[in-house]
Every structure is written in structure tokens, then in C-alpha cells.
Specification:
This protein has 397 residues and is of the alpha+beta class. 62% of the residues lie in helices and 9% in strands. The protein is built from eleven helices and five strands, in the order αααααααααβαββαββ. It has a five-stranded mixed sheet, with helices on one face.
Amino acid sequence: MTSSPPVAGDDRLLPTRFALDPWTWKEISYLLTNLPMAIAGFVYTVVMVSIGVGLAVTVIGLPLLAGGLQGARLLGRAERRRARALLGLRVDEPSATALVHRDRGFFPWLWSSLKDPVGWRAALYSFIRLPWGVLTFTVTLVSLFVLWPVLPFTARLLSNADRAMARGLLSPSDELERRIAELESDRGVVVDTAAADLRRIERDLHDGAQARLVALAMGLGLAKEKLTQDPEAAARMVDEAHGEVKVALQELRDLARGIHPAVLTDRGLDAALSAIASRCTVPVTVGVDMPARPAEAIEGIAYFTVSELLQNVSKHSGARSASVEVWRSGDRLMLQVTDDGRGGARMDGGTGMSGLAERLGAVDGLFVLDSPAGGPTTVTAELPWRDRDGAGAVKRG
């Protein structure tokens, strides 16, 4: 009995041999590239450690070893990216604590680099990967051409072992390591914010009070020249200068209030926020419920957060009323600003919301915006509570 030839379009002609899901193909790609990556990492680690340790008795040995450990960090970063792209494994980036001492001088950098646990773990990862890379490459290649039916299971088993290895040796060492990375990132936000505030103060002084005082000095000089020749004109010029002095003083008071208002120092958040509310273009109700005053830094951040949010209410919301609520909840200082405006506010909408979120995040705070189209808009912020006498609250979570 003879069989008929296959007909074009027959489902039996479909290449079912290659019908694997995309993730399986990514895992196969990862396992096949293990060998070249393992060879490169093994050679680098052996050469780096051999030269560094062998020359440790000379002046260049330890610096070479320290530099080699920083190179091992870079190899670890490349492996984390490869695992993220092909295995879907997201491993947090360790902090750069071994690098931040570079600005403090050569010996602090050298010591921190030599005892850098991230660099040593990355070197260990590269060292032990060579036999594993040979094994995964061989098994995957054989399964690809000989043991096709079990290839998906083999790929999953081997890639799971790779995931465990990367997670164990390439992730941050502990919670403290991750916390250091967060603080380093937050420090950059704080520095940028402080620099921006200094530039704003300099600009306000130059364009405002300073320019007004220069004009005042010139006016008084002209009045002095006219004092004997035209006393009436001189008197008018002195009156004008007196008015300019009042305006300059008010500008300086406003600038000082923008740096740190006296009412906040003397009377606390309740009075300071009421003063802000009185200057808002829409009616604002203020409620403050705290048994005691928090630390000055936390109090100042809360004040300026509410101040900027109420400015947004005045400029962008189109609201008829707004409210400010501040209270303590456990070890957190909570504040909420609500308005009945048009809503639609976004973190990237050019209203400074993202900047506020970054500033609060820099001190372990939270910032949540809820602003549906048509309103109302509610901003809820949290700050860590620290007592005014300097004793800090217990850290959350």
C-alpha cells in the first residue's frame, strides 16, 4: 500500500519541531551564551587575582587588585542585564559604596575597594561559571539536535539553576546594601534641590531687593545734590526713596519667609499654615492635630510642601475652596491637601508635583496624587516623624 504525497497547506507539513514558546527560546539563548561569557569571566578573574595577589608586595599590586574588583563589578552588571533580558530575572543593582570614597583620596578608595563584598562576589561568580558554562552549553546543544522532546524541560531546569546562582551572588548583600543604594540616590536629589534653592535665592536678591537698593542709592545721591539748590525737589526724591525702602523691606521679608518663616519657628505648623492659607486666592480651611511639634527639618518640609501645593491650587486648579489637614499617625506625619477644582493634575504636568515627590522620597517620605478629570484633587503626603528633641521615631517596615 502506497501513501499519497503530502498536499500543500496540509497541517502535517508545519514545522512542529520548532514550535517552542518565546521564553523557552530566550532560555536556550541564555544557556548557549553561558560558555563564551563564562570563559571571558574566568580568564579575567584568574588573571586579575593572580597579578594582584602576586604583586601585593609591591606598590602596584593592591591598586591593581582594587581596580580588578571594580572591573568584576562591571562583569556582574553585564550578567544582571543578560539575566534580565533573557531570563526575565530582575536583580537589584548593588550600591556603589566602593566608588564613593574616590573623592576622599587614594587610600580610602583603595581600602573600600579591597573589602568590597560586591566585587568579590562578582569575581566568585565569574570563577565558578566556567564548568557550569561548559555543562549548560553541552547539554543544551545535545538536546537541541538529539533530545528535542525534553529540550523545554532541560532548558527550564538549567535556567532555574542560573536564576538561583545570579540571585545569590549578584544581588545586593542585604537590606542594608539596598538601603545604602537608595540613600545615595536620594542624596543626589537633596543636593540638586539645595542648589536650585540657592540659585532661586540669588536670583531673587539680584533681580529684586538688590536692584531696588541700587536704585535707592542713586536716588538719594541725586537728592543730596539737589538739597541746597532745590529743596522741594530733594524732599520729593527723599519721599520716593522712603517708599522704595518700604518695598525693599517687604521683598526681603518675603524672601526670608521663603527661606524659613519666623512664624513657623515661633508658633509651629498650625499658625504657619494658616498664614499660607490666608494668602491663597481661594478660601482654605486648615486643620492641624498633633500632640507635639516634630523636628524642625520635618516641620520645614511639611510647611514648604503645603505652600507649594496651595500655590498650585491658586494657579492651576480653578477651585472654589480647598482644605489642609495635618496629623500624626504612629511614626508618620501625615498631610493632605484637597481642592474642588477641575482635576486632571499629573506628576509630569509641569506643576512641580514630581519635584515634591522627589524631595519627600529623599527623606523616606511618600507622595500620592489623586486627581481625576473633573476633580476633586487630593494630595496625600507622609513624612517620618522625628521628635523635636532629636530622638527619631522607629523606622517603618
